[in-house]
Known about the structure:
Blueprint: E1 8-13, H1 15-23, E2 37-39, H2 46-59, E3 63-69, H3 70-73, H4 77-82, E4 89-93, H5 106-114
Parallel strand pairs: 1-2, 1-3, 3-4
Family: Belongs to the V-ATPase F subunit family.
Keywords: Hydrogen ion transport, Ion transport, Membrane, Transport, Vacuole
Subunit structure: V-ATPase is a heteromultimeric enzyme made up of two complexes: the ATP-hydrolytic V1 complex and the proton translocation V0 complex.
Amino acid sequence: xxxxxxxxxxxxxxxxxxxxxxxxxxxxxxxxxxKNFMIVDGKTSVSDIEQTFNHFTSERKDIAILLIxxxxxxxxxxxxxxxxxxxxxxxxxxxxxxxxxxxxxxVLKRVQKLFGE
Length: 117
């Protein structure tokens, strides 16, 4: 599969973020019943988040962008920081109750390092 086959946006987020983005039309369930999103709540284990992150970034070849709430990315920060692939592109997004903090964003840190900031 080439980059042109990557047509989906995947999501690992809280219920509010997921609801909004699903209403915006990013949701997809394939013929095997596999979803391109994961709703994380207080009962979701860190290992489930890690497993979904690895599945979306390593196994799924139809995902172009992976959106993850920054407060959820913090739970798996070592894995997020090690992720360096171009596809899917990884973007940390804010949540309703968790504002975005640029100091925690691993992608932004890498960009700043490239530009010597």
